[in-house]
Design a protein that fits this description.
Elements lengths: L9 H5 L4 H14 L4 E6 L3 H16 L3 E2 L8 E6 L4 H18 L6 E6 L5 H10 L5 E3 L7 H10 L26 E5 L1 E2 L10 H5 L3 E2 L2 H13 L4 E5 L18 H9 L6 E5 L8 H9 L6 E3 L7 H6 L6 H14 L4 E8 L6 H14 L3 E6 L17 H24 L5 E9 L7 E4 L5 E5 L22 E9 L4 E5 L3
Parallel strand pairs: 1-2, 1-3, 3-4, 4-5, 6-9, 9-10, 11-12, 12-13, 16-18
Antiparallel strand pairs: 7-8, 14-15, 14-17, 15-16, 17-18
Helix pairs in contact: 9-10, 10-12, 13-14
Bound molecules: S-adenosyl-L-homocysteine, iron/sulfur cluster and FE3-S4 cluster.
């Protein structure tokens, strides 16, 4: 914990404006003789992960220490996602299991936050069935986290307010979870209203962060020695469209500005909406080497009829043309996608159209989802005559086809040398390391012997080598991973 000039603990200053929380922390320390610990459980997309890093930053600044389970957390936050029913169900499952840890109100501090908290239906359920929760926070209230905790402690019932929301999260501490990749939100919200999607309702209208703020954050990232940034937005291609004075400030321009920060060796971005992927952006992706040779380009459906019903604002032909242009501009570029199966009224012919686009593009990877009706979205009110079993069959067919494509794409790399940005030990096998290629393929690889703690035991790498660029020779391929060995210099 940092100390200020007077020798007081830093958290004391951060908590000065919140006397009740400050008192709670003091009492905790008096009893336990250590600082209280926080645990944040995050569901959903990387934008939620980025938000959780800010929440963690605010809490660490206030003197809380991180921990990694509900059982050991004195302050627990669950950051929720509404995008499909299973994310919501899992959240309520977790909340149910928290009952056993909650104790009497005020002993542990429990907050629920994220996209689900913007919806009355979920807040009411929490208020009715999970009364041990102290406070509810919307995604646009993150900068008020400490003040909401304070009110949660003061109020007997669950605290929730519509106030204290901000359009942007600026000048807040961030506790980055990875040494190799920094998540940087460049915009918030979404204006597209795809007919199946809840995000525009949970995250509000599109707001682009200012260039100055984004670049300043990335300079900090560079100064911390993090070599990769992931620029985040629900539709990064629309960045800058809401600026009054647009000049040349669009996403392609922003990418070139970020690439001037040379110690950032990899620039990733997601998500790209096909309707806003301009020729200028394609040219930029082709020209600037630091930009990853990978684009995540959600297709959703290959049928023009369904794309129109989804309000996606592009046709299959336009999608295929963008893919061709991208591959011409940047040979070797990998393309990943999202596809929804079982959208209301999807007929066999529509599904075959999706398969056809998959066969033409041959995506390097794809996230496939069964359509999940979201209350409040237009599509949730449309009649869906398709049998669940048929949808399940289509889904399995699609997964199988994609697995075939992914494996073929990965097999092409056998025998090649690639540069891997190390993410640490492999989650499945702690004796090997794991990381990603520039085009976003996951590689598990054997480090050289000199990097092991004890060459004779041949087991554990001396360090995780997180954040290091490591040359790897690819020896085998699986559907979702490549296998390889570190190359001796
Ligand atoms: N803004 C991004 C990501 C949105 S959510 C984009 O436009 O691509 C991530 C993915 O979840 C979407 O691409 C979509 O494939 C899927 N998704 C969104 N709403 C869904 C729903 N109601 N049912 C099933 N999948 C959904
Ligand atoms: Fe949802 Fe569409 Fe916006 Fe993506 S672009 S967040 S799918 S509404
Ligand atoms: Fe989920 Fe909200 Fe992200 S609904 S996908 S956490 S924007």
């Amino acid at each position: 914990m940092s100390q200020n000039m007077k020798g007081e603990s830093h958290y004391t200053t951060a908590l000065d404006a919140y006397p009740v929380l400050k008192d709670w922390v003091s009492q905790y320390r008096a009893v336990n003789a250590v600082q209280p610990k926080y645990y944040i459980r995050t569901f959903g997309c990387q934008q939620n992960e980025a938000d959780s890093e800010i929440m963690a930053g605010i809490l660490e600044d206030a003197g809380f220490l991180p921990t990694d389970s509900y059982a050991t957390g004195d302050l627990i936050l669950i950051n929720t996602c509404s995008v499909r029913a299973n994310a919501e169900d899992r959240f309520f499952g977790h909340l149910g299991s928290l009952k056993q840890f909650a104790g009497e109100k005020g002993r542990r501090i429990i907050g629920t936050c994220g996209c689900m908290m913007t919806q009355d239906i979920h807040r009411s359920r929490i208020e009715q069935s999970f009364r041990f929760v102290d406070f509810i926070m919307r995604p646009d209230q993150i900068s008020s986290l400490l003040s909401l905790i304070e009110d949660g402690l003061i109020h007997k019932s669950i605290y929730y307010t519509e106030d204290r929301s901000t359009k942007f999260h600026e000048n807040l501490p961030i506790s980055r979870q990875r040494k190799y990749r920094a998540l940087v939100s460049i915009m918030y919200g979404c204006n597209n209203y795809c007919s199946y999607c809840i995000v525009p309702y949970t995250r509000g209208r599109e707001r682009s962060r200012k260039t100055k703020d984004i670049l300043q954050e990335i300079m900090h990232v560079a100064a911390e020695g993090i070599p990769e940034v992931l620029l985040l937005g629900q539709n990064v291609n629309a960045w800058g469209k809401d600026f009054a004075d647009q000049k040349q400030q669009n996403f392609a321009w922003l990418l070139s500005k970020v690439s001037e920060i040379k110690s950032i060796r990899r620039i990733r971005f997601m998500t790209s909406h096909p309707k806003d992927l301009s020729d200028q952006l394609i040219e930029t992706i082709g020209r600037i080497e630091q930009i990853e040779p990978h684009v995540h380009l959600p297709l959703q459906s290959g049928s023009n009829r369904i794309l129109t019903k989804m309000n996606r604002q592009y046709s299959r032909e336009q999608y295929l043309e963008i893919v061709n242009k991208l591959r011409e501009a940047r040979p070797g570029l990998s393309i990943s996608t999202d596809i929804i199966v079982g959208f209301p009224g999807e007929e066999l012919a529509d599904f075959i159209d999706t398969i056809d686009v998959m066969d033409r593009v041959r995506f390097d990877s794809a996230f496939t989802f069964i359509y999940s009706p979201r209350i409040g979205t237009p599509a949730s009110e449309w009649y869906n005559p398709i049998d669940r079993e048929v949808i399940q069959e289509r889904f399995e067919h699609l997964v199988e086809l994609q697995n075939e494509h992914s494996l073929t794409a990965n097999m092409k790399l056998i025998g090649h040398n690639v540069e891997v940005l190390c993410e640490g030990r492999s989650s499945g096998d702690k004796t090997i390391l794991s990381g990603r290629t520039a085009d976003n393929r996951l590689v598990n690889f054997i480090p050289q012997d000199k990097n092991r703690t004890d060459a004779s035991s041949n087991i554990i790498p001396a360090t995780d080598r997180e954040g290091e660029f490591i040359p790897v020779h690819i020896t085998a391929a699986k559907t979702f991973t490549l296998l390889g060995e570190e190359i001796c210099p």
